[in-house]
Design brief:
By secondary structure, the protein is an alpha+beta fold. It has 2 domains: 49 residues; 42 residues, no CATH class. The chain contains 2 helices and 6 strands. The chain has a 3-stranded antiparallel beta sheet, with helices on one face. It has a 3-stranded antiparallel beta sheet with strand order 4-5-6. The longest helix has 21 residues. The radius of gyration is 19 Å and the shape is elongated.
């Protein structure tokens, strides 16, 4: 059976744990607890795969965890690079210098 990585996180807006799959964005589940979201996520994945096979839809290969780690590391490096360009932070305003331009970001 194909093994897709499940990501579970708390949604403050939804007041629930959300289970999502990087490779299958349409396949989601939720639960009041982490464990419930994990159970519901497994059930949603099984149902999703079964439905796709019944409709002869091709499923994507699960992303290799190593390549996901590499993508994450690349993203982290980009964030670190942006942090180096932070010029000023105060009262919800951040000024960042990137590629010769200065960006102002306001957090409200």
């Amino acid at each position: 059976m194909l093994q897709y990585a499940m990501h579970i996180q708390w949604s403050a807006t939804g007041h629930a744990y959300l289970a999502t799959f990087h490779d299958l964005p349409a396949c989601t589940a939720q639960g009041d607890t982490y464990e419930e979201a994990a159970r519901n996520g497994r059930e949603a994945l099984e149902t999703f795969i079964e439905a796709a096979r019944e409709q002869n839809e091709e499923l994507p290969e699960p992303t290799n965890q190593k390549s996901m780690r590499e993508e994450f590391d690349e993203l982290r490096a980009e964030v670190d690079k942006l942090k180096e360009g932070v010029l000023q932070t105060n009262n919800g305003l951040v000024r960042v210098k990137h590629d010769g331009l200065i960006y102002e970001i306001t957090f409200t």
